[in-house]
Amino acid sequence: MTYFRKILQFAVPYKKYAVLNIVCNIFYAIFSTLSFIALIPVIQVLFDKTKRVSEKPLWDGLAGIKDYAVNHFNYYVTQKVNEDEVAALVFICGIVVLLFFLKNMFGYLSSFFLTFLRNGVLRDVRDAMYKKIIALPVAYFSEKKKGDTISRITADVNEVQTSFLSILELIVREPLTILFTIIAMLMMSAKLTLFVFVFLPVSGFIISLIGKQLKKQSNLAQEENGHFLSIVEETLSSLKIIKGFNAEDKFYKKFQESTNRLNGILNSLVNRQNMASPTSEFLGIFVIVIILWFGGNMVLIEGSLDAATFIAFLGLAYNILTPAKQISKASYSVKKGNAAAERILAVLETPISIKDQPDAIDKKEFENEISIENINFSYEEEKVLKNFSIKVPKGKTVALVGQSGSGKSTIANLITRFYDVQDGSIKLDGTDIRNIKKASLRNLLGLVTQDSILFNDTIRNNVALGKDNATDEEIIDALKVANAWEFVKELPNKLDTNIGDSGNKLSGGQKQRLSIARAVLKNPPVMILDEATSALDTESEKLVQKALENMMKNRTSVIIAHRLSTIQDADNIVVMQRGEIVEQGKHQELLEKKGTYHKLVEMQSFA
């Protein structure tokens, strides 16, 4: 229950609904008990004339309040019976109907108020999950399956919501119903009530045996649910490759294996859960039969209990069965919910390794230079950068070149603080970027990645992602700089054209030009281009390269390049190999050295 208690903290803003729910549940439990107690005077007065009261009872203090209330009611009914037996019957039936109406009305109101609380908690947990997901560093998701994360924010949160409803009934309505019923039973016959309670611990023990493995199986089901969602996500994002390599059957088999495992887990889980209701009902009826035998002796042989009270006692005993059964089902549901809450809290309580320092500054301008000093960096055990140092003066363009795996893209990830450096430092105008607020640091940076990351939205919303309230004129100007307006203006809805999932309605070159337009509109002082032209065809590359050159005039730029033809005018070209700098200088200088850069140029020229 530890995890569930933490989830219940989300209910604090909705405590007024919880209070109203509790109040309604108290009245529900009271009227549920009274509706059975009302049967006693009915039977006594109508069918046993010796119980009729002809004299109005007198108040004898609090000690005799029970007898006073019963006799007063019997006296009133007796008067009605003496006047008109049919009218008395209608009056008594009206009381029973009223009590059941009030019971059900408060039952509805308790559920009504609980709905606001339950759905509010559902929304707030989802919001907290999403907020945490976008706050977590990129490194966290490199180790996680997307499907598992999706499962936690959907299926697990739904499971917690369902269990949340169950636990509120578990701790309020049903226990109160049982409590008031037991009090009424004790007032009728303490001996018979105590006899009944000899059997309840045995029933509880049998029911608890059923649910011991429920949390474990529920956890397995939720993990497998995340696994098959990951397969679906991979399939949808890689459909061309799957079809191109005729791998449909292979992926179907992989998916079928996952759903078969989930089917086996759920069969065991649901069957165990379904066993709770019939088991508790059978045990309850067993207790009722015991009451019939023992109570029957008290009525027929001992004469210590009258028939009317015994009939009402049986009704009350049966009245315990429904809430007891609900508690049994709720306890199973809570165990499942606790497993789901554990998976949710695993995300919510994950420490954020990349966060603002308490004294971090809000930097508005870029003034002098970016300084990368003696950096060492590893992904797990693989060392990617070794004692790496460069300076990027304001207004200059620095290009990083080298073979794949040489650490070029890692530099971009470190400057933008997607990852934090492990040794050394990166400074902006002499201030370590770890001492600058992330939001203000990223406001100074524009990013165009190798993969054109676009969203299933309009061209307008994709381009204006980094600038709120951008005008159409500003967006069109940015598209023109990126040489994208020429194709956008030909689209049916121009800026309002939806580009599909990941921009798949556009060609690779068009997608990349929109990515560049997005960075142009943001207009940051520092631009980071991570192989920004690698996805373009030759014609598009020339168009975009010209646009990039115009955009980078008097702007600080860090270019990670695979095509060396795109960085010939860079102020400094840094040649990397296995995380280290092997050469640096201008294009012509490096060619004259006949070193690594010269070999790379020759290889690309030959290609």
From TrEMBL:
- Identify the GO cellular component terms for this protein: plasma membrane
- PROSITE patterns in UniProt: ABC_TM1F (PS50929), ABC_TRANSPORTER_1 (PS00211), ABC_TRANSPORTER_2 (PS50893)
Q: Where are the transmembrane segments?
A: 26-47, 86-106, 178-210, 282-301
Q: Which residue range or ranges hold the ABC transmembrane type-1 domain?
A: 19-336
- The keyword Transmembrane helix is annotated on this UniProt entry: yes
Places the protein is found: Cell membrane
How does the protein's chain sit in the membrane according to the entry? Multi-pass membrane protein
Cite the entry's keywords alphabetically. Answer: ATP-binding, Membrane, Nucleotide-binding, Transmembrane, Transmembrane helix, Transport
Q: Which residues form the ABC transporter domain?
A: 370-603
* InterPro entries, per database record: AAA+_ATPase (IPR003593), ABC1_TM_dom (IPR011527), ABC1_TM_sf (IPR036640), ABC_transporter-like_ATP-bd (IPR003439), ABC_transporter-like_CS (IPR017871), P-loop_NTPase (IPR027417), Type_1_exporter (IPR039421)
Q: Name one GO molecular function term.
A: ATP hydrolysis activity
Keyword Transport (UniProt): yes
Q: Which domain of life is it from?
A: Bacteria
Which protein, by its recorded name, is this? Antibiotic ABC transporter ATP-binding protein
Q: Which organism is it from?
A: Christiangramia salexigens
